[in-house]
């Protein structure tokens, strides 16, 4: 087994949640190495965009999982590609060769909606329409409305594009 897979397996082996989030499967289940399964996560909906062959897929179940994956990959110099629902049309969630795909779709908790502060605390895998419905129950409106909103996640929707980042840094 490669050092990367061994390190990920070890890092994900403790199932103690740090943030109260549900933990799907044990550590081994969250680390996916089956090439057929990984292949189905290797690219988004951009038919034209190139993509590589990932080394592994981690279906994160908590912030602790995310931190552990990033720690291992930073130590070993392995790229991490985060991914929500994979509905993007620009290849942003596409795998790099040898990367770890970090799927956030299982982290779909709506932790708090505070109508007074107009604040929602959510995990990155919350589906846009689910958050809109939950906000509406408090008389609030969550405005982002891509046509993919029945499937796409807030993590993939709120990530700034390079163009948006450049625009905001020059504003
Ligand atoms: C049928 C269809 C209709 C669409 N309609 C629209 C539309 O009307 N308007 C529009 O703007 N877009 C639209 N899109 C594009 C896409 O659905 C949206 O951009 C959507 O918000 C992406 O969400 P996702 O969860 O699928 O993100 P993904 O495709 O999984 O990821 C998008 C980007 O965000 C990054 N990312 C994902 N999660 C995280 C995270 N937690 N932390 C950091 N980075 C993260 C990924 O690496 C990638 O770069 C459409 C796509 C389809 C297939």
Explain this structure.
The protein folds into two domains: 3-103, Uridine Diphospho-n-acetylenolpyruvylglucosamine Reductase, domain 2 (2-Layer Sandwich); 110-163, no CATH class. 32% of the residues lie in helices and 13% in strands. By secondary structure, the protein is α/β, with parallel strands linked by helices. Strands 1-2-4-3 form a four-stranded mixed β-sheet. A two-stranded antiparallel sheet has the order 5-6. The chain has seven helices and six strands, in the order H-H-E-H-E-H-E-E-E-E-H-H-H. The model is unreliable at 162-171 (pLDDT under 50). Strand 5 (110-114) and strand 6 form a beta hairpin. Bound molecules: flavin-adenine dinucleotide. The site of flavin-adenine dinucleotide has 24 residues, from strand 3 and helix 6.
How do the strands and helices of this protein lay out in sequence?
Blueprint: H1 3-11, H2 27-30, E1 31-32, H3 35-39, E2 56-59, H4 63-76, E3 80-83, E4 100-103, E5 110-114, E6 119-122, H5 128-136, H6 154-158, H7 162-170
Parallel strand pairs: 2-4, 3-4
Antiparallel strand pairs: 1-2, 5-6
The site of flavin-adenine dinucleotide has 24 residues, from strand 3 and helix 6.
Give the helix proportion (percent range): 25-40%
Radius of gyration: 17 Å
By secondary-structure content and strand pairing, the structural class works out as alpha/beta
Number of strands: 6
Please list the strands of the largest sheet in the order they lie side by side: 1-2-4-3
Number of helices: 7
Q: What is the CATH topology assignment of the largest domain?
A: Uridine Diphospho-n-acetylenolpyruvylglucosamine Reductase, domain 2
């Amino acid at each position: 087994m490669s050092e990367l897979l061994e390190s990920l397996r070890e890092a994900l082996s403790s199932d103690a949640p740090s943030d109260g989030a549900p933990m799907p499967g044990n550590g081994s289940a969250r680390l996916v190495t089956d090439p057929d399964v990984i292949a189905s996560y290797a690219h988004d909906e951009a038919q034209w965009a190139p993509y590589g062959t990932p080394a592994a897929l981690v279906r994160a179940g908590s912030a602790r999982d995310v931190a552990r994956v990033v720690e291992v990959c930073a130590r070993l110099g392995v790229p991490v590609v985060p991914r929500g629902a994979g509905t993007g049309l620009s290849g942003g969630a596409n795998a790099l060769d040898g990367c770890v795909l970090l799927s956030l779709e299982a982290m779909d908790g709506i932790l708090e909606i505070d109508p007074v502060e107009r604040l929602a605390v959510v995990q990155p895998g919350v589906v846009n329409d689910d958050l809109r419905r939950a906000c509406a129950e408090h008389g609030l409106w969550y405005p982002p409305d891509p046509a993919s909103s029945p499937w796409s996640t807030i993590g993939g929707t709120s990530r700034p594009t390079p163009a948006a980042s450049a625009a905001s840094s020059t504003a």
